[in-house]
């Protein structure tokens, strides 16, 4: 299906390039025609809700994505349904609590959107770089509709095409828990399901929720269950793991994912030419229960069930002088899951990687998103010079694979050395007087040492 999706994206881009001067641009994907819409305020053309796979309903539930069937011309002028949503783990405070969501997503959700700069009738510029935006959410939540892709085009001096995709979430995907080849290490499966669950136990619990326990073919039974029933089950299962963790994650199966990611990175097995990676200063805070007293050692044992007391003691010693207990726990989460893996990625692209730190207070995970997409609700630090410097570092990299080749040479971002040049990073922050701070810094030696220790414990963290 991955190849099929790439073909669809390429076909859309080629078709719009050949659309010519029409009242509204039309693309023919073979199985369907889509009519785009031009925003007259800025001459950005939208193709929204392009079906890239068959509806994953009925017998296609829990299966790999299938090729979309034939259908007639569609007006691609509005967002389609989000995929059914879950949540991150909440245990021990409220395991198995059903939570309502604010909207009504649907199981039929395999759509993508395409945005490109055009003239007034939808004719595009020739051959632009393409950004494929894959929303986050821990494989349990998120949607393409959460972003305004026009912002990326505007911040790129109208120099990119943006494609945003949706994918099935939570138990509605092709979850590892149903396929033995995806079980991998039971230790790893427990990593994100730390509520006394093994993969098999989650599977059985899932079947029990839907009265399929006695079915001859439990999978056929589950495929026939009403989607709203499974939606409630999905919420309960995704809320069950240890606080701030996610149960529906990839595992090393030896076939599709052949080894731990850190091993592949260390061997230089990367599929890309260059890397720009931005981490936030305090990535871990929102994934830690701020109301529960716990030591760094205890927390590491909960976060990584593969740990023993030896590994927990190492963690305790690493963070012993790093603020109070809560600060230490936040750092354990943020560095082990987000910040240190960023450095492993950077090292896999020697001479071709650039590192940034987003530090606008409070510097929590995800707070940088508002600055990539600043056209809607104003970001908390609504400083145009800062926003342009931050967002255009990203778009300059998309266009040129180098943030120093700026789409707008007047931005305040100084020269940005590659990371392996003295472990250089670019800091994006502000002063107490709300003046932008965009300047080179050097990665902390203490942090890099801790990351080396985390890397050495990869067999226990399953990273």
From TrEMBL:
InterPro entries in UniProt: AB_hydrolase_fold (IPR029058), CarbesteraseB (IPR002018), Carboxylesterase_B_CS (IPR019819), Type-B_Carboxylest/Lipase (IPR050309)
PANTHER family named among the record's database cross-references: CARBOXYLESTERASE (PTHR11559)
Source superkingdom: Eukaryota
GO MF, any single term: hydrolase activity
One Pfam family it belongs to: COesterase
Keyword annotations of the record: Hydrolase, Signal
Name of the protein described by the UniProt record: Carboxylic ester hydrolase
Stretches assigned to the Carboxylesterase type B domain: 24-173, 211-425
Keyword Signal: yes
